[in-house]
UniProtKB/TrEMBL annotation:
Family statement drawn from the similarity comment of this UniProt entry: Belongs to the alpha-carbonic anhydrase family.
Pfam families in the cross-refs: Carb_anhydrase (PF00194)
Domain Alpha-carbonic anhydrase: 24-159
Signal peptide from the UniProt entry: none
Native organism: Polyplax serrata (Common mouse louse)
Gene3D superfamilies tied to this protein: Alpha carbonic anhydrase (3.10.200.10)
UniProt-listed SUPFAM superfamilies: Carbonic anhydrase (SSF51069)
GO molecular function: carbonate dehydratase activity; zinc ion binding
Name of the protein in question: Alpha-carbonic anhydrase domain-containing protein
GO biological process: one example: one-carbon metabolic process
InterPro entries named among the record's database cross-references: CA_dom, CA_dom_sf, Carbonic_anhydrase_a-class
Length: 159
């Protein structure tokens, strides 16, 4: 039997808006339930290379030809919100300098737009992924490639 989802209501207050907007987020306890939330996410239940991923360092290969990862060191302004299961920082679109991520195994330049830090009710349940079956209290950052034009296309291939 699946646990019942809990609805979490929070206010997302944006500088451009005169009034606050209420958003309802349905919280399911982890990635194992994503395929149940939306039929379009059904691969989350069936796929072999879907989140969550257990990283096993002793099975990783070292690539001596891999370039260094470069992250721009610009200060950016933005908005922060707490949804009750994650803290979200969104870069203000009018920010002057952007933080780009390049190099390493990346073929494209990725622009930092938003960071999600998922956390759980307990220290062993916040991260989606694990290392040697060890879960962490919190995890996750997200960036989008400049290769695509719309945010919807970016989200499908985000880092």
């Amino acid at each position: 039997m699946y646990p019942r989802p809990r609805a979490i209501v929070y206010q997302n207050i944006q500088k451009e808006m005169e009034a606050s907007v209420q958003v309802i987020v349905f919280f399911f306890p982890g990635p194992a339930f994503w395929g149940l939330i939306n039929p379009e996410w059904s691969l989350c239940n069936r796929g072999r290379r879907q989140s969550p991923v257990n990283l096993e360092p002793d099975k990783l290969l070292f690539d001596p030809n891999l370039r260094s990862l470069h992250i721009d060191k610009h200060r950016v302004s933005g908005y922060i919100a707490n949804t009750g299961h994650s803290v979200i920082f969104t870069v203000d679109n009018s920010t002057r300098n952007h933080i780009n991520v390049t190099g390493g195994p990346l073929s494209y330049r990725y622009q930092f737009q938003e960071m999600h830090m998922h956390y759980g009710l307990h220290d062993d349940s916040g991260s989606e992924h694990s290392v040697n079956d060890y879960a962490f209290p919190a995890e996750h950052t997200a960036s989008d490639t400049e290769r695509y034009i719309t945010g919807e296309e970016n989200s499908a291939v985000g880092l």
